[in-house]
């Protein structure tokens, strides 16, 4: 028996998110089926991040246990042959038997992409949120200064989430414009349900002038979801990668 | 009666190209139907570039004649409401009654995008050609020096095309790498059938070391399609824009 780790990229457009569920096709479900088929034994993968329906990933991480004699690093090639083209393994390798990507210390990087121009661009529609009103990136950046660090992010936690604590550490937020695309890159050691999308929705309210940048401090202090901005749509969000610490 | 010009962006993935045809859904057909429906009169648009099935556009240009009293610049908004989300008008405006985008002097800009890395990236699969073997961008750039200018491009013309002359003028080719994406940007006053895709397919053969850069000169001189590289896949190609001269 060995444990194999996978780095998984996917286009979330056609999936009901990562986590397996009775109704709807999920990334986890498709991976379980393809691995079970490939290895001839029942495989159940454990993922680092249970991304929501419609969210994309370049580098989600998952592990599974197997008795196969196929070397860990070869599994990526064989598995990609059996996966639909909107899921692609980027790396496979044998890992320590006790490595679990959800319970190890790690830093995740997400990017939220906004297409900020007068008319939508069809070739961008699946991977960015189209937003018509002009965004002031400098003001958005100013607002992020209140979010970086260790805080109670209750105002940025989607309702319905059951967590013991809403305290999390954001290690960095960068925002930049490249042509018509405004990217918000968020790094943190853990995220609450919908946290990045609520941060993005709130920063958009700053960028369009609805909220002054310093309002974000008040929103954070309120610990109340009802005072922050809307949850930005799923399709603008991509889990870029996860770095694990020893 | 007035003539209205449109700048049209589309994701070509689900279309049988620009030009209307008996079988298959085309950009031109969808635009004709949406305009006819919007304006209450039979509309037939004339396009600048009849892009192939699967090719994308950020700025194709088309014109049509209409008796509507809707101002030209307002048509874009009303038309976008009636179009599927993979076609979006970027600009509409009244133009001279004798302006025809196919027969005016113009310069077209195309980009061919190659995803050059070990494994495919799902979120790039619709808008770039995945190519596994490492491409040497410097060699590709060296090869382009033979192509720029006025030449007989018979070696870069898809078979089945009926044209009086295969002489065309390429005004520029730039190639650059940004991370894993290699972009070939080609500008010219006119293009032969599949010309940009055959140039891309030939430059890929240079980039992978199959052809030395100077082979491109011999290919050009041969005026023979059979000696150039393969036609690169349609989905890597985007018509970026068209500039018209007086």
From TrEMBL, chains A, B:
Keywords: Isomerase, tRNA processing. The keyword tRNA processing applies. InterPro entries: PsdUridine_synth_cat_dom_sf, PsdUridine_synth_TruA, PsdUridine_synth_TruA_a/b_dom, PsdUridine_synth_TruA_C, TruA/RsuA/RluB/E/F_N. It comes from the Bacteria. The active site is at 52 (nucleophile). GO terms for biological process: tRNA pseudouridine synthesis. It is an enzyme of class 5 (isomerase). GO terms for molecular function: RNA binding; tRNA pseudouridine(38-40) synthase activity. Residues 7-103, 143-244 form the Pseudouridine synthase I TruA alpha/beta domain. Its EC number is 5.4.99.12. It catalyses: uridine(38/39/40) in tRNA = pseudouridine(38/39/40) in tRNA. Substrate binds at residue 110. Homodimer. Formation of pseudouridine at positions 38, 39 and 40 in the anticodon stem and loop of transfer RNAs. Belongs to the tRNA pseudouridine synthase TruA family. This is tRNA pseudouridine synthase A. It comes from Blautia obeum. The gene is truA.
